[in-house]
Amino acid sequence: MFKSFPLVRAGCYCSTRWLINKITGSEHLPRKGSVIITPNHSSLIDGVIITTLFNILRLSPCHTIVQQESFKDDFFGYLLRCAKCIPVDRQSKESIAEMFGLALAYLGKGEQVMIFPEGHLNNGETLRLPRPGAALLALESGAPVLPVGLRGTRNIYRLGEKFNYLSRAQVHYGKLIDTTGLSRLYQRAAAEERKRLIEDLSLRIMLQISELSGMRLHKHLQRQLQARESAVGWER
């Protein structure tokens, strides 16, 4: 099946590249080595766009973490398997553990993993609260995080509505977040300190995503940011 991946990759690229009318921040993209890609999530086509762009850029699969239900569709399931996406059932602790293990294995081999920090679709205006998965992967692996801001994808396709072929999207890549030092701190930290490190890194990721996507931070994150900025030694 995976022998057909180059053809699938090229087909996906041709069918999605025309949806994008602007890309910025390409200078921040790492050309090799492991990276955790963290976009905002406003439309079901977000994953297709970013996965396709990175597959072409790196000439290797972008291992996107996808809900297990998506693999049940014959056509999209085939594409997801060709792209070596990682299935997860959020209701199953065993599935979540297996997903993390597989994602860490890919990162350990110097490959790329994409995860939506929000976990679910937002309303197109305000970012959701981040789940701990993206920060946890980074702290466990020490891999850098690449925040990505997508704009306009919700206008192209909104759940329950028809596909709008006339709309176009923008992709804005942010600066890499180096997690090497944070990962070392995390590995030797107690439980309470680990929780704080996860929250801090999640906040940094969401701050960049907010600036890149033009979307508002969740009000809880705004309060968290105010508290962090008033603390000594905290930097964005």
> Structural class of the secondary elements?
alpha/beta
What order do the strands of the largest sheet run in, or round the barrel if closed?
1-7-6-2-5-3-4
Kindly report how far apart the N and C termini lie.
44 Å
Main sheet? Answer: 7 strands, mixed
Describe the structure.
By secondary structure, the chain is an alpha/beta fold. Helix content is 46%, strand content 14%. The protein has a seven-stranded mixed β-sheet, sandwiched between helices. The chain is globular, with a radius of gyration of 17 Å. The model has no long low-confidence stretch (mean pLDDT 88).
In short:
With 236 residues, this protein is α/β, with parallel strands linked by helices. Helix content is 46%, strand content 14%.
Notable characteristics:
alpha/beta; 7 strands; 236 residues; 9 helices; globular; single chain; seven-stranded mixed beta sheet; 14% strand
List the helices and strands and how they pair.
Elements: H1 5-17, E1 20-24, E2 35-39, H2 46-58, E3 62-67, H3 74-82, E4 86-88, H4 93-108, E5 112-114, H5 133-141, E6 145-151, H6 153-156, E7 169-173, H7 180-188, H8 191-213, H9 219-230
Parallel strand pairs: 1-7, 2-5, 2-6, 3-4, 3-5
Antiparallel strand pairs: 6-7
Helix pairs in contact: 1-2, 4-5, 5-7, 5-8
